[in-house]
Design goal:
Number of strands: 4
Order of helices and strands: HHHHHHHEEHEEHHHHHHHH
Radius of gyration: 24 Å
Oligomer: single chain
Structural class: mainly alpha
Strand content: under 5%
Largest sheet: 4 strands, antiparallel
Number of domains: 3
Shape: globular
Distance between the termini: 56 Å
Amino acid sequence: MDEKDFALYPYISGAGVHVKSLGMSLDRLVKSRAMESARIRGKERVLQAISGEIIKPNFSGSDEQKILLELLSYPFSRILVSCIDDSFLVRRYSLAEAVASYKLLKTRDPDFLMEIASDFDVYPDKNETGFKLHFSSYIRMASTLKAIEWKLVNRKMKHGNVTVSKEEFARLLQELIRTRVENNLPMNVPDEFVHLCEPYLTDIRSSLEERKNKFGDSEFESVETDLFPPCITHAISNTQAGVNLAHSMRFAMTAFLLTIGMSVDDILNLFAASPDFDIEKARYQVEHIAGSSGTHYTPPSCSTMQTYGNCYAPDAVCKKISHPLNYYRRKLWFRKKDSQKSADNTMTKMPEKTKDK
């Protein structure tokens, strides 16, 4: 691999060795005026990760300075993430780095993918349609993927080997990359460097807070995220952190958000952090649930959520309702009641109108 590859795939072992060979120290990276462009790009890298996608540059043969800048921006971005030391940011940044790499890897030739894989102690064989890899390697690579097509029982296996296409192999490498980046964060950053990095952290903290709190507008009077049932809150949190949801939970969350008035685009923005996110496929699925086919789907009942293992940390309100929408209605009703300036002596009946499914 050359310096260009190290800049595009900076988490591989050779990249770190190459940076050290340049005489680059943490002290110089953080303090030197000559490194300001790399620090600015490192900050941009983190901001891009928070917003959804790290944009990798296109290099030409004469872009030596640009290549070096991109290469050195990676360790500085890791320093910034470590200074903030927020688990949500760590997961989101790690995912963004991995997804950006996946988009590049699926365009590279099979030999390059095999070279990347060897850095993770994975040694596949090429075949006519893609790659063959031992089932133990496949399980290690696919263990975090929740979609049913990644389950080993749904893959063709012959003589202990699983066959995957080139694009599927790139997707599996994405998971190894994400895990490596995440497992090496946060770094132990000396207090002196945390102080020096502070000018770069303000915008990152602001963007991170905005991302955590932004769920969009609603027609259901308002989308009150703090009133969501625990199962939906947990699903949204996982989605924003880049965790793959089971298909049944993805449906339940989407149907719930659509029913309370969240727009298709707002929901797509939530799913943008998912490792398997495909904008065209996701839009089709969300619009289908929203009623593009003539049927508007409502979320499943609590009993169905329990059947599929999607009921999470039920609270006292959960024990009084049988449907996630009724949890939300009940919470809204109490909030309205509490906010009335003059209490009405006549208690109105709390809404309980959604039929269980």
